[in-house]
Design goal:
Strand order of the largest sheet: 5-10-9-6-11
Shape: globular
Strand content: 25-35%
Oligomer: single chain
Largest sheet: 5 strands, mixed, barrel
Distance between the termini: 6 Å
Radius of gyration: 17 Å
Number of helices: 6
Number of strands: 11
Structural class: alpha/beta
Length: about 250
């Protein structure tokens, strides 16, 4: 797999800072800057997409079309959905679901596969873009034994050492800052984290072909509840660095 040119995406400058030094010349396309470089000794093209599904989808399409990348990695922060996880934990996506695509019914929202026609109720009632078992197996092997740094005491979440988890990551064009909504998303999808880009990257990659591996690495910067806006600002730089540490470990396996 390491002979595939890797496309590396981050949404925010804080997330991007630990992935590429941006030392080489940039090529600007569609308002985005693309850098060629390396991650963990592997040739890659890097781009800071901006937040949200449309930005991520545009960046992904350009990587695949203009640079002919044939493997993708998205790295950054996310809100935690699973109450068993904590700030600083890292989630590696095994399935990506766009939780905000579907149709509003009386009293509830029905999530369907992106591209299905909501007016018809959707032709695919099982939304998501699962990763292959062989890819997930390689990723698990790559991070086996990797110890993450303990959180600094200044963060305010108490002393704890983060851990690495695998599971479903949700994507939607909204920042989750509501405890009841967090509970609903976790209960409906059994997902571990929620963010604003991964589902779009997965959708575009799948449109290009089933043979394009996609890895989404997310460090939990908050717990997607009432205090998300406070935790996110305080912990974003540290969470981004932790996600990058895992991303460097995974890059050769994609």
């Amino acid at each position: 797999m390491a002979n595939r040119l890797l496309g590396v995406i981050s949404a925010l400058p804080e997330e991007f800072a630990h992935l590429s030094d941006q030392s080489g010349p940039a090529q600007r396309i569609g308002g985005l800057a693309f850098w060629r470089g390396e991650i963990a000794g592997r040739e890659a093209v890097f781009v800071e997409s901006g937040a949200g599904k449309v930005n991520a989808g545009v960046a992904t399409a350009l990587l695949l079309d203009r640079f002919d990348v044939r493997a993708l990695m998205l790295c950054g922060v996310a809100g935690g959905l699973d109450p068993a996880l904590g700030v600083g934990d890292v989630v590696i996506g095994t399935n990506h679901v766009q939780h905000d695509y579907g149709t509003h019914r009386e009293g509830f929202f029905l999530t369907i596969q992106p591209g299905s026609r909501p007016s018809r109720g959707g032709t695919d009632w099982h939304p998501g873009y699962p990763e292959s078992e062989s890819l997930v197996a390689r990723l698990r092997e790559s991070v086996a034994g990797l110890a993450l740094e303990p959180l600094p005491g200044t963060i305010g979440v108490g002393p704890r050492t983060p851990s690495i988890h695998f599971g479903t990551i949700l994507t939607g064009d909204s920042f989750i800052n509501a405890e009841l909504h967090r509970q609903r998303l976790h209960g409906e999808f059994a997902a571990k984290a929620v963010e604003m880009e991964g589902g779009a990257v997965a959708q575009v990659a799948r449109r290009w072909g089933d043979d394009i591996p996609f890895v989404n690495v997310r460090c939990l910067s908050d717990l997607a509840g009432r205090s998300s806006h406070l935790d996110f600002r305080a912990f974003l730089p540290i969470a981004a660095r932790t996600a990058s540490q895992v991303a460097h470990r995974l890059a050769p396996a994609i």
